[in-house]
Amino acid sequence: MDFAENKPVTGWIAGVEFPVLLFWQVCKSKDGSTGILYLVSSDLGCDAESLKTIYKRRWKVEVFYKTLKSNAAMAKSPAHTVRTQSNHVFLSIYSVFRLETLSLKLNMNHFQLRVKIYLSAQSASFNRATNVYSCVALAILAGINIYSLR
Fold this sequence. Notes:
The protein is an alpha+beta fold. The protein has helices at about 50-70, 80-105, 110-140; strands at about 10, 20-30, 35-40. It is about 55% helix and about 15% strand. A three-stranded antiparallel beta sheet has the order 1-2-3, covered by helices on one side. It comes from Parendozoicomonas callyspongiae.
């Protein structure tokens, strides 16, 4: 079988009852490494450019779902009722929308943004704890009984 790059061929896949269009292309990563991407379509009338366009659009959907699961905690829902589950789904989708907005604005991917937000939250938490510790230390030095302040 002639299976050359940029030339889709019709073939069969084990377990699939109908012929499919098979296609492969070499992909280059940002770091310069290369890999082969194998594409399959049930539309036998597609050409190479159509297949590339379809899969490019599909890939954006895959990235969306990965972000939804990984960065918006969609898969880790603690909700048990229909209402709370619905709220969790809505807020997860909204979070991905906000991440995408920030991603475009700051020219960073979702995972970089998540790390940046996490580090910012950790820093704010540390600063808050340091401030509380400082206040307690000053109160002790001033002779104030901090347990009577409840």
